[in-house]
Amino acid sequence: MRIEPRDVLCLGLGSPCSSRDARAQLAFLSRLCALSNIDSANVSVYDPVFTDADRRLFQVLGMQCPSDIKQVKHSLDGPTILYMPHCDLKLYEIVIRANWTYGRLCDIVFLANCFSDYIDNNPASKLEEQSPCLRRLAPLVESWPLPTSGAFPTAFNNLSVQYVKREPLSLEGDTFWHLVEMS
């Protein structure tokens, strides 16, 4: 894998002002950006539970914090870390679908729930109906689980660093890429 992200989209963080886990996840995100030389101005965070106090915190940190989901750009331009701690299946599907091209998918580093767990824990018919993109993509993803945190056991459980393997994805035919409109 050789992706050098310059942007971060963080969805589903929770309220750092009211949640210990969200504070730990935000601290992790801040440190990750510092180690990756990603400017905080290139970090966009959104969660419908954010309070005014949360938004002020993000402003102080220099991060972008749209006030409405309609302002969140789900289709990504260029190498991006998609940080989605403990989001639901539907949100993963929305974001993957919005980036359903070879180039975009290969430019994303997912820091998210392990996709293979969704495949293992849901009936194939449900996945095909509700999450066809995730169902198709999961077998083509390399995944490294984050180590367990003794201090924050629920903040990082089931999170993995994941990326799409370029070669297998490049071999996929038209039926892989064809999607039916979601209702």
Automatic annotation (TrEMBL):
Cellular component terms per the entry's GO annotation: cytoplasm; nucleus
Domain of life where this protein originates: Eukaryota
Family, similarity comment: Belongs to the SRR1 family.
Species: Paxillus rubicundulus Ve08.2h10
UniProt domain SRR1-like: residue ranges: 5-163
Protein name: SRR1-like domain-containing protein
Entry-linked PANTHER family: SRR1-LIKE PROTEIN
